[in-house]
Amino acid sequence: xxxxxxxxxxxxxxxxxxxxxxxxxxxxxxxxxxxxxxxxxxxxxxxxxxxxxxxxxxxxxxxxxxxxxxxxxxxxxxxxxxxxxxxxxxxxxxxxxxxxxxxxxxxxxxxxxxxxxxxxxxxxxxxxxxxxxxxxxxxxxxxxxxxxxxxxxxxxxxxxxxxxxxxxxxxxxxxxxxxxxxxxxxxxxxxxxxxxxxxxxxxxxxxxxxxxxxxxxxxxxxxxxxxxxxxxxxxxxxxxxxxxxxxxxxxxxxxxxxxxxxxxxxxxxxxxxxxxxxxxxxxxxxxxxxxxxxxxxxxxxxxxxxxxxxxxxxxxxxxxxxxxxxxxxxxxxxxxxxxxxxxxxxxxxxxxxxxxxxxxxxxxxxxxxxxxxxxxxxxxxxxxxxxxxxxxxxxxxxxxxxxxxxxxxxxxxxxxxxxxxxxxxxxxxxxxxxxxxxxxxxxxxxxxxxxxxxxxxxxxxxxxxxxxxxxxxxxxxxxxxxxxxxxxxxxxxxxxxxxxxxxxxxxxxxxxxxxxxxxxxxxxxxxxxxxxxxxxxxxxxxxxxxxxxxxxxxxxxxxxxxxxxxxxxxxxxxxxxxxxxxxxxxxxxxxxxxxxxxxxxxxxxxxxxx
Length: 610
Known about the structure:
Elements: H1 2-34, H2 37-69, H3 77-125, H4 128-133, H5 136-178, H6 181-228, H7 230-235, H8 239-291, H9 297-339, E1 360-370, E2 373-383, E3 388-392, H10 399-406, E4 414-419, E5 422-423, H11 429-434, E6 436-439, H12 450-455, H13 463-472, H14 476-481, H15 499-513, E7 517-521, H16 529-543, E8 547-552, E9 563-568, E10 571-576, H17 578-584, H18 587-606
Parallel strand pairs: 3-8, 3-9, 6-7, 7-8
Antiparallel strand pairs: 1-2, 1-4, 4-5, 9-10
Helix pairs in contact: 1-9, 2-3, 2-5, 2-9, 3-5, 5-6, 5-9, 6-8, 6-9, 8-9, 13-15, 17-18
C-alpha cells in the first residue's frame, strides 16, 4: 500500500514537472512566431472572419426555413435573397480559411527552418566530450521529431484550437442572446465534461507515448550503429545478434504502441458518449420548445446546426489535444538539447588571436576527464616559431590530448597554453582554430565529392589551388583516374576510399588551409612505405617556416625533428634531439631499438621478392 502511494506521488510529481516543461516549451516557441507577428495577426483575422461566416450560415438557414413556414410569403424573393446570402457565407468561410492557410504557411515553415538551423548550430557549439558520448541515431530521430513538432503545434493551434475557441464563443453568444439558459447550460456542461474527461485520460496515456519515443530512438540508434559498423558486423558474423537486439527493442515498443492504441480507443468511445448525450439533450430541449410553440422549426434547425458545427470539431479537438501533447513531448527533447550548456565557451570580451610568429608554450599543464583519472600531468614545454617538435610514446600516453587542448576542445584543468604569449582561453575559438591546421590519425570525410572534401580546407580556394594541394599530397593522379574524377562521391565517412587515400585528402586539406601552426597526428600511419617517403618530403616542405607539432608512434618519422618529447602516462619523461635521446639510452632508445627489430622481423617475414 505504501509502495503504491509512493509510486502515485512519483507519477504526480513527474506530471507537474511535465506540465511546467510544456508551458516552458510553448514560451520557447514565441521568438519563432515574433519574426512574422504581422502575418500571424493577419492569419488570426482571417480565422475570425471565416468563423463569423461559418456561424452565420445556420442563422441564414433558420430564416430560410421560417420563411417557408410563413403564410405571408407569396413570392420567392425573400428565400432567393437568403439563399444567395447562404451561398455567399459558404464562399466567404472557404475563402478566409484558405487565406489563413496561405498567410500562415511562411510562419510555420520559417519556424521549422529557424529551429533546425539553431539546433545544428548549437550541436556544433557543444564540446567534444558531448559528441564523443552521443548516440547519432537517437539524436537524428529526436531532432527529426522535435523540429517537426513545432510545425505540428502551430498547425493545430491555428487550424484547430483557435477556430474551435472562436466558434464556441460565437455559438455561446447566439444561445445566450436568443434561447433559454438551459440550452447554454447543457452546451457548456457537455463541453466542460468533455474537456475534463479528455485531459484526464490523455495525461494517463502520455506515459505510453514517452516510453514509445524512448524505445523508438533506442531502436533507431541500434539500427544506425549496426550500419555504421557494417564491416565489423560482417567480420564477426553478427547479423543475427544485431537483428535480435533491434527486434527486442521493437518488441517493447510494440507493447507500448498497443497499450497506447487501446487506451486511445477507450478515450474515443468516451468522447463519443459525452457528445451523443449532449446533442440528444439539446435536441430534446429544442423539440419541447417547438411543441410548446416557444420555438419555430427554424429555431430547431438552427440549434441542431450550431451543435453539429460545434461538436464535430470538438470531437477532433480530443485528437488535437493528444497530438499537441505528443508534439510537446517530442519538442521537449529538442529544447532540452538547446538548454545544454557547452563545456568550452568564449569568455565575454574574448579577443581574436593576434598571430605573429606562432610560438607555442605549455606551462605546467594538467588535464583530466574525471579527477580520479588524470590524462596530462605537469606538462611543460615550448615550441619556438618555425621549429618542429615531435611527441612520441606508447598508446594512452596522452600525445593526442595535447593537440585537443591546443585546439581548445577542452580547457586545461590547471596551467596555461599560450600562442604568441596569449592564453588560448582568452581568445575566440574561431580565430584560434583558423590559425591551426591538422592532419588527424583517423580522417573522416563528408559523404560528398572528393573535390568538396579537398576544398573544405579553404572553401574560397580556386580550383587551381585545390588541384595543386592534391598534387602535393600525391593524390591528384589517383583522383583523375577515377571514372567520375573530382566529382567521385566518397561515401559515408569516406568509406569508399582506403585509409591511405583518406589520409592524403587530409594532408591536401591542411596544405590548402595554409595555417601558421601545423599538427601532424600520425599523419602517415595508413600509408605504404613508398608513398610515406614521398609524403614525408611533402610534409617537410609544407612545414618549412611553420611551427609544427608532430605526434607519432613510429620513431622513424620524427628523426629530423628539432626536439622530441617522450611521454609516458601523461608526463614528459625525456626530451632532446634524436641523437641526444639515443645517446642517453633511456625510454626513447629502448623504443627505437624495439621498432628497429620489428622492422627487420617484418622484412624477413615478407620473404624474397622476384
